[in-house]
Amino acid sequence: MRDFSEDTSALVLNTATLGHNLDGYGAGWPVERVIDACAAHGFGGIVFWRREIGRRALEIGNRVRAAGLEVTGLCRTPYLVGSERSANWLDETRASIDMAAELGTSVLTVVTGGTEPGTKGTLETQKILADRLGKVVEYATERKVRLALEPLNPMFGGNRTCIMTVRDALNVCEMVDHDDLGIAIDVYHVWWDSDLHQSCASAGSRIVGFHLCDWLENTTDMLLDRGMMGDGVADLRAIRNAVESNGYSGPCEVEIFSREKWWRTDPDIVLSMIVERFRQFC
Ligand code: ZN
Predict the structure, then answer these.
(1) pLDDT in tens, the chain (282 residues)
(2) How far is the CA of 255 from the centre of ligand 1 (A)?
């Protein structure tokens, strides 16, 4: 396992941590200010949400690199399955791949969407998902982008996801069977999974992303009460050990949706806290 006690080059900010993925939250810093602050605090990279980028993908990507950082990912595709899937999912997914390519990042996160109308459970939907991923993954390859399937905590089943474990994500990857379809592993979604070490070992080089936060003992909001690393009950080192067991050496992306705590805190303090906790607990 890598030693981060004196090294923050793998540390990445997902801008949702500053409230940037929802209207009306966070300090409202412009992208440029976020980039400069991340550079000043010693981060190695940034992951943006599509809503922040608009038509400025190339400009923002260049701005990040000029500050000495990398854009290590983009959040995210539209839902590919489920009742909340966009009617234009195919065009929208291709547009998100284009945006990732223009930003100069090689990873685009996929949140799948929930159970497909007319079906029950998740297995049938996973097959439909695999079929739809098969229709876009070659396009991603042409743009030098890898798709990262992110399994979500089972409480997000129904409307947001049809894959709830690394094992589920791996099954879908095996159905699609393409080198540019991988898996992003987020502490918030997998911390409870006693099969994690085995499933990560099976995933091997398919792991293309690792997301950090903590699971608070008394979570008050499923979506918007994630904890800062060290404040919760997730075994962060054991999870990273599982993720790195087969050679993952990529970014560690801090992604904390926290409406009542961290989104109400000065972003400079949030960034300092992330660096301190990353070195101490991750
Ligand atoms: Zn995540």
Answers:
(1) 999 999 999 999 999 999 987 888 888 899 999 999 999 999 999 999 999 999 999 999 999 999 999 999 999 999 999 999 989 999 999 999 999 999 999 999 999 999 999 999 999 999 999 999 999 999 999 999 999 999 999 999 999 999 999 999 999 999 999 999 999 999 999 999 999 999 999 999 999 999 999 999 999 999 999 999 999 999 999 999 999 998 899 999 999 999 999 999 999 999 999 999 999 999
(2) 6
Q: What contacts 185, CB < 8 A, 6 or more positions away?
A: 150, 151, 166, 200, 207, 209, 210, 211, 239, 243
pTM value?
Answer: 0.97
CA of 223 from ligand 1 middle (Å) equals 11
β-strand partners of 270: none
Q: Structural domains in the chain?
A: 11-281 (3.20.20.150)
Phi, psi values for residue 146, rounded to 5°: -105, 140
Q: Which has the closest alpha carbon to 183: 133, 229, 144?
A: 133
Task: Tell me how far the alpha carbon of residue 90 lies from the centroid of ligand 1, in angstroms.
Answer: 22
The dihedral region occupied by 29, where left means phi > 0, alpha psi between -120 and 50, and beta the remainder, is beta
Ligand 1 centre distance from Cα of residue 185 (Å):
7
User: How remote is the CA of residue 245 from the centroid of ligand 1, in Å?
Assistant: 20
